[in-house]
Amino acid sequence: MLARRLPFVLLIAFFSRSSLATDCYGTTSLTGCFSVLGTTGPAEAGPFRTLSLGRTLTAESFALSANTWHIIRPAELAVSSPDPAGRSIYAVSRATVIDWRAAVGIGSHMDLTLAVPVFMDVRGLGADAISTQKPTAFQEAALGDPRLGVRASLLPPSLRDFRLMLRNEWTLPLGNNPHYAGDVSFTSTLAVTGAYYYDGWSVALDVGARSAAATRFGDIRLGTSALFGFGFARDIITDNVLSVGLEAWVNPVLVPAATTDVPSTGGARAIPSEWLMNVQWHPESQPCWFWLGGGSALPLSHRNVGDATFADSSFIAPSSARVRLGLGLGLMFGGT
Questions:
Q1: What are the respective helix, strand and coil percentages of the chain, to the nearest 5?
Q2: Average pLDDT over residues 35-46
Q3: Whether 13 contacts 7, CB under 8 Å
């Protein structure tokens, strides 16, 4: 059923994108557009969903995975109202996304990556909800921004326990950004991933920066940000046959916060961040693997609330899902 629906989903998403006119930079509406998918990750098997193990695919090997996410309240805004507690606006209340990922080894310790997120269902009140008491809710399928990348291993394969990888990725602004399936512009990510494996334990650290155009969402702005990811995992059955992984990512936004038309006296700092735990089963000597997991956002963002009684000093940044549930499967051909 899903395979038969997918071509229609892509066509609907493509043609609907051009028919929607929205202030996606938030210049006048104060609620700009961005992708609510949040962070993404590698195509190959591993105990983490957003972090790699720091090694590229071998030459002529190919990995393909389908990662399904159900994300709840990834774009929420609190505004003033007659109620002292304020009014919560769910620009996006929930979304179901299939994040298709692929990677191919090209030799010389390098590989190429591709990801295409397809929003099978995204719903909410939209970017105009702040300007009206009775906004028109939306519910539809949408195409997300494709992501292209290149990765390179910086250490020789003889160092099996410690690995270091450099990656550069770009997203193309082809997604339906008025419905929060894509960003307003091209983005570029440059990051380094280090990983260490010892006696069934895996540790990974990801550090980098993501360049993106700024867009306003209430009293904050999203855009260029630093990237920090950390994870550790344990093999329940050796050689990654059955593993449990715990990871977190923190992406402090580097662009200045909005300072006009907001009740805050000192501005707000957006730090999109989440944690995720997953279990992966990779049958021994088989090219396939399966995983399932879940997590939630971390309230690391902060603002000086001043006299705004409805606003919280610590809050969850837009693009961070209040609840994230996921499952997926993958295949590897031609190598490991």
A1: 5, 50, 45
A2: 93
A3: no
